Amino acid sequence: MSKKWTTLLFTVLLTMAACSNDDTKAPEEGEQAPENGAEQTESGDVALTEIPDVVAKVNDTEIQKDRLEDQIEAQLGQYGQTVEDAPNEQLNQMYYSAAQSLVNEELLLTASADFKPSDEEINAAWTKEAEQIGGEDKLKQGIEQANFTEDEYRGLLAERIQVENYVADRTGEVEVTDEEAKEFYDQQSLILGGAQGEGGEGEGAEGEATLPPFEEVKETIVAQLKQQKQGEQTSDIIEELRADSSIEVFIEEPEAPAMPGAPQEEANENA
Questions:
Q1: Spans of all domains in the chain
Q2: Which CATH fold would you assign to the domain 11-175+232-260?
Q3: What is the pLDDT of residue 71?
């Protein structure tokens, strides 16, 4: 099966992990990376990074160019873009980030090989996805629009569950208390000026936005906080796996863009 990693299915944990895992830091022991630097065209535009046939190597496993291209196309497709639409500077950053993400995914899938899910777990995840999207027909329609077969999609579900099982085994089940959920709710309420809804209309005085009553959104908040904790735990595990692995990434990390109107030297000092 072609591993099109960038679906929203598998990236829940990895995206959350990336929020607390800085891939731009110095390589871990045993990890190699190319020198920094972005070339420019004669017109002054940033040159597009050339993607090698092998974009990264994790221990003895090579990550091929087509996996990265699948990821980039799917990411852009979420916003109605294609590779031809995106500017070179954006693509260069996406190429590098995607290569790092693929490394993380390879590490996690290798480490979690003994935690493959049962058919019952996969079917339960399929049912949950269908419920969230509005029914099985809509789920199948979305799968088709994303150029997946049903078997490929179930395969991605299986791999996501595999990693979740592994992380849970390493860290224990993630729990979110009512107090944590209420604290999060109150914080969001303060952002909206302390407006909390009572009748569920979602508006306060003079049409000001309010939060629905806590009990109405409690389940959603708990799920969100659980994902956040899972991401943090996954980030810690990824750092450990990277430190114990030999990693080579064959795509250059692009330089951070300069602040508009700022001299390049000053922008680099403030980066």
A1: 11-175+232-260
A2: Triger factor/SurA peptide-binding fold (1.10.4030)
A3: 87
| Consecutive H or E run containing 190 | helix 178-191
pLDDT value of position 211: 82
pLDDT along the chain (271 residues), means of 10: 40 45 46 50 72 96 95 84 91 95 96 97 94 91 84 93 93 92 92 61 53 91 92 94 97 74 50 46
Q: Are 115 and 169 in contact (CB under 8 A)?
A: yes
Question: What is residue 13's predicted lDDT score, i.e. its pLDDT?
Answer: 44
Place of tokens 């190319």: 34
Q: How many Cβ atoms from other residues are within 10 Å of residue 30's Cβ?
A: 13
What pTM value is reported for the model? 0.71
Asked if 57 and 248 touch (Cβ cutoff 8 Å), the reply is yes
Residues 6+ apart with CB under 8 A from 108: 14, 163, 166, 234, 237, 238, 241
- As a dihedral over the C-alpha atoms of residue 121, residue 124, residue 125, residue 129, rounded to 10 degrees, the angle is 170
Terminal-residue alpha carbon distance, the chain: 41
Instruction: Tell me which residue of 178, 160, 54, 83 sits closest to 115, measured CA to CA.
Output: 160
Asked if 267 and 259 count as a contact pair (C-beta separation under 8 A), the reply is yes
Q: What is the pLDDT at residue 11?
A: 43
Q: What is the DSSP letter of 115?
A: G
Alpha-carbon distance 249 to 143, whole Å?
31
Residue 124, pLDDT score:
96
Q: How far apart are CA 202 and CA 195, in angstroms?
A: 9
Asked if 250 and 54 count as a contact pair (C-beta separation under 8 A), the reply is yes
Angle at 240 between CA 247 and CA 231, to 5 degrees: 105
Residue 219: Cβ within 10 Å count? 10
